[in-house]
Specification:
The termini are far apart. About 5% of the residues lie in helices and about 40% in strands. It is globular, with a radius of gyration of 14 Å. The chain has about 140 residues and is mostly beta strands. It contains two helices and twelve strands.
Length: about 140
């Protein structure tokens, strides 16, 4: 999958695989809102991470996966929105055979912290999605458990 025009490659160790980021909004202070369009090649994913004030993901294309600590790996598709709570450890990325693009919306903390990096997501964790494909309850209330 070629990178979209004007995209920046996401930096290791934040991701596994090919991931590109387009910054859509990063307004000047006093605003702390940040919006990125993130493009994942098949099999690509973030490392475990958390945002001090939470994050909203809205899938705009493709099929992917998301998991919050202690919860199952879930399938997400174009049109799905996932709300991740403040300080919630999580990861997200594309499916094994499909690319995925999502909007990532978060507020940066007063001290400038946008996210805290955790461990990479291992292949075994990434592969567990088939057991926990999206179901009606998740679609109705698509927040991390």
């Amino acid at each position: 999958m070629p990178p979209p025009a004007a995209s920046a490659r996401a930096a290791a160790p934040w991701v596994t695989g090919d991931v590109w980021v387009d910054e859509l909004a990063s307004p000047a202070a006093p605003s702390r809102l940040r919006v990125d369009s993130v493009h994942f090649a098949p099999g690509a994913r973030t490392a475990w991470h958390r945002h001090p004030l939470g994050q909203l993901l809205h899938v705009t294309a493709g099929t992917g996966r998301v998991q919050c600590a202690g919860g199952p790996v879930r399938t997400i598709r174009a049109g799905d929105t996932v709300r991740i709570g403040a300080g919630e450890w999580h990861w997200h990325g594309a499916g094994p055979d499909t690319a995925m693009t999502h909007l990532a919306v978060q507020e940066v903390a007063e001290d400038g912290t946008a996210a805290e990096l955790g461990e990479p997501v291992d292949d075994a964790t990434y592969a567990t999605y088939a057991t926990y494909a999206m179901h009606a309850a998740f679609a109705a209330e698509p927040s991390c458990p």
